Amino acid sequence: MKQLMNSVKKKAGERERTAVLRLEMDYELATLFDAMTEKNEDLKKQTKLKLERIRQELLRLKAL
After folding, report:
1. What pTM, to 2 d.p., does this model score?
2. N or C end of the chain, less CB within 10 A?
3. CB 21 within 8 A of CB 58
C-alpha cells in the first residue's frame, strides 16, 4: 500500500513539474522572440541555453 501511495505522489509531483516547465518554456520563448526582434545576441544565447535545459528535463519526464 505504501508503494502505491508513493507512486501516486510521485506522478502528481511529475505532473506539477511538467506544468511549471511548460510555463517556463512559454516565457523563455517570448524572451527569445524579443531578443531576436532586438537583435540581442547575448540574450538569444542565454535563452537558448535555458530552453535546452527545459527541453532536457521535459524529455526526462517523458512529457514531450
Report:
1. 0.80
2. N
3. yes
| b/e code 25-61 from CB counts within 10 Å (16+ = b) | beebeebbeebeeeeeeeebeebeebbeebeebbeee
- Residue 62 grid coordinates: 517523458
For 8-60, the pLDDT digits (tens) are 677 788 899 999 999 999 999 999 999 999 999 999 999 999 999 999 999 99
* Cell numbers linked to 13: 509531483
Structural domain total, the chain: 1
SS3 track for 2-45? HHHHHHHHHHHHHHHHHHHHHHHHHHHHHHHHHHHHHCCHHHHH
Instruction: Please report the sign of the dihedral spanned by the C-alpha atoms of residue 18, residue 22, residue 23, residue 25.
Output: positive
